Amino acid sequence: MNYLDWISKWSSYTPHKKAVFCTETKQSFSYLQLHQNSLQIGSYLTNRFHLKKGDRLAVIAEHSPQYLMLFIAAQRLGIILVPLNYRYSTSEMLHCLKDVSPSLILADDFKFETQILDLKKRAEAQIISLESFFEKAKTISLDDFEPDFEIEKEQPVFIFFTSGTTGKPKGVIYTNQMMVWNNLNTAIQLEITSSDHTLNSLPPYHTSGWNVLLLPMLHRGARVDFISKFKPGKVLSYLQEQPISLFLAVPTMLRMMVNSKAFEAFKPKKLNYFIVGGEDLSIQLIDAWAKKGILISQGYGLTEAGPSITSLHRHEALWKKGSIGKPNFYVDVKIINDENEEVNNNEPGEFCVRGHIVTPGYWNNTSYTLGKIKDDWLHTGDVVTKDDDGFLYILGRKNQIYISGGENIHPSEIEKTLYKIDGIMEAAVVGVEDEKWGETGVAFVVLDNQKLHEKDIRSFLKNNLASYKVPKEIIVMEKLPKSGLGKINKKKLKVAFKKMNNVKNNFLQ
């Protein structure tokens, strides 16, 4: 089924058209170069490292055209790419590596030198320098090379790690079939054509870094530019100077751009609209961009499905502010109550999704898969309502995950880490509103050791968790409010936090 190899197709149709460009290195690659370089990488993976269909290939690196070519090569060979979150602590990375048992790890040991040195001491798989890998792959001759591969629709192409509804990251399987139907959904809903041009600034360890715009754009023969790190002023400048037609962002990015000094003079040449998802978007932010003539197409997706599940068409952005739109093509949805009955309009319920865009399950976790996917329906855990016009609105999450800067964070993981600290009797973490990050974490602790200081707690957390998971505030209380069953009442903690209004003497000194 090599009709799934659309890079090969476009290399035949428009061989010399620029496909991707790197803003840092100024390297550009045509569709023909993408095709040929990916064949070299595939040959190198097969002949030098003996990787085969079903093997896992873990990668620790920022996004780039080379990373994309590695994906193309892996897809053709049936090798499963595992983009690791380089913001994870070493222990978190080791958990993921143990779960997927990769045959090889490719790492940017220049940008992540400290992490890689630590991993090399503890990881079981061989770790190879990414730069060295690509340099050697470029020397592979294709003169006598006959590519022999078959891309199968059910074959996994990615394993994305997500916190899900429990603290430990879980590997979500992402297949060729999911990718193709998601590409179609995205291209139809966003009206993508081969003349479109985008800038990709999202990291590769999220499905959004691949499947919201990057791969759907290339599926349509469009152009994608890469910028490895989001900097608001730099991105604003690029969007203004280049003929970028659409841009993907999370609300935190939009907030940072609005607050940038460059925003006042921002006048893009061609930018039609933003595609936004990942967390709630404030009305004020929607209006700020509307004044610049840029509408926002909000949407909804998750690692386990799509991620193109619902979309709010940009022409409806101001009419239905705050909505995630309507279901996209090729996906079934329903909203149910706790009795598994579909609810009426304007009634809250859990959002469920069915279709070819839904994952077959979680890697090495059948029990969790069966708990989330029932009779082909993925139970998302998100609570939504549908108005009388058919537009959907997110109310919150059944679980207690909060989203900070586009990152899913589960309080229980942080709480378990807090309980490892000698001197903490009780701990609870809640997500609260934050102007910059959308939401941020606040930890409430009860101590039996008054010599324990905030800097000690924060230092321990930083050494055991990704930096974005470390709570912004740590508050000491004599006791935590409890429910009638003796459970910590987090709703009361949120109310208490608002009343405290960040009074400094409530914080550890």
Q: What does this molecule look like?
A:
30% of the residues lie in helices and 26% in strands. With 509 residues, the protein is an alpha/beta fold. Among the domains are: 144 residues, ANL, N-terminal domain (Rossmann fold, 3-Layer(aba) Sandwich); 105 residues, ANL, C-terminal domain (GMP Synthetase, Chain A, domain 3). The strands form seven sheets. A five-stranded mixed sheet has the order 11-12-13-14-15. Strands 16, 17, 18, 19 and 20 form a five-stranded antiparallel sheet that branches. The protein has a four-stranded mixed sheet with strand order 2-1-10-9. Helix 5 links the parallel strand 5 and strand 6. Helix 1 packs across helix 2, helix 2 crosses helix 3 and helix 10 crosses helix 11. The C terminus is likely disordered. Pfam families: AMP-binding (PF00501), AMP-binding_C (PF13193). This is AMP-binding protein.
Secondary-structure map:
Layout (H helix, E strand, L loop, with lengths): L5 H8 L4 E5 L5 E3 H17 L8 E5 L4 H13 L2 E4 L6 H11 L3 E4 L5 H10 L4 E3 H8 L18 E7 L7 E6 H15 L6 E4 L7 H4 L2 H6 L3 E4 L5 H10 L4 E4 L1 H8 L14 E4 L6 H8 L4 E8 L2 E7 L14 E2 L4 E5 L12 E6 L11 H7 E2 L2 E10 L5 E6 L4 E3 L2 E3 L1 H8 L5 E11 L3 E10 L6 H11 L8 E4 L13 H11 L9
Parallel strand pairs: 1-10, 3-4, 3-5, 5-6, 9-10, 11-12, 12-13, 24-25
Antiparallel strand pairs: 1-2, 7-8, 13-14, 14-15, 16-17, 17-19, 18-19, 19-20, 21-22, 23-24
